């Protein structure tokens, strides 16, 4: 943090600020009201389930195509008295209701249509803690995703830590070693946990659950197990006998696309972790500039892009909204790609700032850093409206990378190589915080810091 001109304890300060947030009148932590019985219209349930599938489950596909929809409808219709399955259904309804009218996400955050479902779900938390099952594990992940959609990173991290502990115990005990179907579901849940925890931990000073040690041992998900519900108009019937061959084929195609993104995101997260580890060879508190390492990381990142399926391809150096893909998952990967590039080149900028000069080779990397910042801001700005579960982490990344770029532009030896669009991106970075800051104390603080720094530059 001190590299960016911030206090070293800024990340802890932001965490403590988030922790100080109290439940609001809309019941972000449960209202305590009687939960009662829900009278739900089938059209409403279908719409909410489709919103959950498209806007949340697409990013973290933890459910199986062979059983989730049927189990969900049984719980909603009161045909399954299990507290764990009821909690799962209520969490899906809460999350789906919250994101259904997004973008913008602020609509749901302001109206809070999720509270009645979440009140019911949170009342069943003791059942979840006592139920050592995959459904219980999935509920813990959904609690985390719910708080991610509420832009509450600390609470999201609390639940993902619980989920991580349970998943690791299940993996260690080889609970499902003879059950291929349940074992696949456990692997899928474990990967989702790794991705969620990684997204949060890279931004704030959070505890590490240790689940990364399973990275090399976890098989990747398989295509025939991915659940996808589709839009209300094309969603499959909960009764498999009523599905047409065409709808079944569409569902398989959508499931394959969801899996393709999941696999690409797992590979990207491994790449980002490798990048962070490689450039964190600190020398006197500063990242060490090493051209050989930068070249190798750049090559690996380009290899990652080379193996993406065509549907996830994107412009590798976007400079305007016209260069951003329409597919939300491709947008987010584009933002991550640019962020990874920026982190690869950042040590060169740090050394130039420290020494007040740099050779031709180093200045080329510095120039690439500013190009990567412009690309990141363009992609991240678009992704903010489509990648709802990662809303907070996207804002935090915009905050950090913008501060780093601001720091670089103040170095006289870099003045002639700064991408001209960098300064326009500073203004855009400040403006994206306007609507969201009232819903998050930490993002409000980031917004104020960013405004002060940009105005002073």
From TrEMBL:
Q: Where is the composition biased (Low complexity)?
A: 231-250
CDD domains, per the entry: fungal_TF_MHR (cd12148)
Write down the superkingdom of origin: Eukaryota
* Statement: the UniProt record of this protein carries the keyword Nucleus: yes
Q: Show where the Xylanolytic transcriptional activator regulatory domain sits.
A: 51-265
Q: Which UniProt keywords apply?
A: Nucleus
The entry's protein name is Xylanolytic transcriptional activator regulatory domain-containing protein
In its UniProt entry, the species of origin is given as Cephalotrichum gorgonifer
Its taxonomic placement starts with: Eukaryota, Fungi, Dikarya, Ascomycota, Pezizomycotina
């Amino acid at each position: 943090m001190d590299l960016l001109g911030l206090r070293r304890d800024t990340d802890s300060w932001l965490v403590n600020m988030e922790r100080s947030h109290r439940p609001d009148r809309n019941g972000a932590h449960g209202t305590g009201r009687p939960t009662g019985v829900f009278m739900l219209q089938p059209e409403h349930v279908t719409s909410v389930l489709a919103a959950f599938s498209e806007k949340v489950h697409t990013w973290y596909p933890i459910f199986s195509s062979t059983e989730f929809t049927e189990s969900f409808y049984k719980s909603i219709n009161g045909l399954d008295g299990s507290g764990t399955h009821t909690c799962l259904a209520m969490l899906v309804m809460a999350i789906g209701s919250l994101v259904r009218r997004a973008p913008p996400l602020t609509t749901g955050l302001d109206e809070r249509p999720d509270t009645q479902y979440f009140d019911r779900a949170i009342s069943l938390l003791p059942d979840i803690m006592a139920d050592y099952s995959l459904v219980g594990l999935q509920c813990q992940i959904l609690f985390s995703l719910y708080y991610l959609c509420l832009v509450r990173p600390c609470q999201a991290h609390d639940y993902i830590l619980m989920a991580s502990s349970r998943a690791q115990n299940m993996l260690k005990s080889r609970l499902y070693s003879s059950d291929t179907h349940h074992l696949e579901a456990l692997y899928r849940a474990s990967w989702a946990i790794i991705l969620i925890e990684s997204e949060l931990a890279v931004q704030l000073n959070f505890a590490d659950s240790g689940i990364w040690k399973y990275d090399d041992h976890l098989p990747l998900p398989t295509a025939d197990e991915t659940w996808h519900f589709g839009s209300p108009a094309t969603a499959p019937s909960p009764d498999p006998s009523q599905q047409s061959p065409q709808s079944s084929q569409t569902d398989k195609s959508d499931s394959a696309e969801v899996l393709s993104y999941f696999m690409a995101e797992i590979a990207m997260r491994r790449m980002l972790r490798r990048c962070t580890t490689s450039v964190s060879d600190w020398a006197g508190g500063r990242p060490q500039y090493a051209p050989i390492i930068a070249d190798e990381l750049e090559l690996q990142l380009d290899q990652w892009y080379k193996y993406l399926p065509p549907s996830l391809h994107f412009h590798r150096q976007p400079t305007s909204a016209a260069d951003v893909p329409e597919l939300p998952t491709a947008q987010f990967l584009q933002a991550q790609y640019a962020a990874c590039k920026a982190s690869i080149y950042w040590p060169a900028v740090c050394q130039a700032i420290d020494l007040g000069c740099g050779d031709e080779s180093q200045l080329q990397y510095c120039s690439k850093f500013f190009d990567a910042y412009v690309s990141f801001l363009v992609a991240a700005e678009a992704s903010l409206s489509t990648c709802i579960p990662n809303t907070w982490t996207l804002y935090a990344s915009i905050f950090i990378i913008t501060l780093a770029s601001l720091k670089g532009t103040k170095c006289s030896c870099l003045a002639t190589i700064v991408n001209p669009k960098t300064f326009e991106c500073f203004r855009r970075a400040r403006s994206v915080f306007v609507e969201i800051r009232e819903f998050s104390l930490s993002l409000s603080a980031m917004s104020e810091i960013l405004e002060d720094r940009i105005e002073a530059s």
